[in-house]
Amino acid sequence: MTPPSFEQFTISLKTPVGEVSTAVGVPTSFVPVASIVPLARRLGEEAVALEEARTRDTGDRISCQKGCAACCRMLVPVSAPEAFALREMIDGLPDERRHAVLQKLNTTRARLEEADLLARLTALGETESPLSDDEMEPINREYYALRMACPFLDQETCSIYEHRPAACRELLVTTPPALCDDLLNNPLRPLPVPIRVGPALALLWSELKQCAPMLIPLPLAVEWAHAHSDEEQEVWKGAELMERLLAKVGVLLEQEFAHRKTQTAPGS
């Protein structure tokens, strides 16, 4: 098999906390949408790193450390491209490890069904009318009330750390760790997120497939990807995927700039 060829690009993005600039190799061939996920994650991580540096410069401290898994009891949303990438990663695990992961996913699924949440969470990945934040709030609270560990958590450590969803990478707080005992009700101070990678990938998939933008609950992401395996095999030109992704990132950056301007306006 001939190795794929790549075209080199330098991507520069102006974010509210500085410029992100990175060199990337983009496949010149036709590739599935999951192939764009590493690039999206890299852009998001570099932007978050700038935000962390700004926070340290102001004297604040990021509370999140290795071994802290309080947020791993929350409902984590993933985009369709991330779900495909996650399924691909799990399918590539050694047999014993893969079976253990799938068993934990099945156990989580059973508990969600017992809690009368499974049908509602499954619908989130198939809906033509995504729920608003206000409509999602009661679902988020019911899920969090279970205090159920993420199926990918192993002894309070993420077992898929290098492949974890963008939403997990972006959730950092500067409030005392003790407040994370109740993430929904305590006055947490989250780090602002310059580039929201999950929503950008969701918008990309929405445009490619002419469907509603959606975010899939992490515990059901692998199941969702298997159910949509035909779509997972569809391919697009690598450069086209990159350009479309950057357009979505640009839209979200404009919204973030506007939001921060509103937050710093006199009287806000």
How many extended strands?
8
Structural class: mainly alpha
Outline type? globular
The count of helical stretches stands at 10
Mean pLDDT: 93
From the alpha-carbon coordinates, what is the Rg to the nearest angstrom?
19 Å
Structure description:
There is one protein chain. With 268 residues, the protein is mainly α. The protein has one domain (6-264). 48% of the residues lie in helices and 12% in strands. It contains ten helices and eight strands. A two-stranded antiparallel sheet has the order 1-2. Strands 3-8 form a two-stranded antiparallel ribbon. Strands 4-7 form a two-stranded antiparallel ribbon. The chain is globular, with a radius of gyration of 19 Å. The model has no long low-confidence stretch (mean pLDDT 93).
Quick take:
The chain has 268 residues and is mainly alpha-helical. It has helices at residues 37-57, 80-91, 95-114, 118-124, 133-145, 166-170, 197-209, 221-227, 229-232, 238-264, and strands at 6-15, 18-27, 30-31, 77-78, 153-154, 157-158, 216-217, 236-237.
Question: Which features characterize this protein?
Answer:
two-stranded antiparallel ribbon, single chain, two-stranded antiparallel sheet, globular, 12% strand, mainly alpha, 10 helices, 268 residues
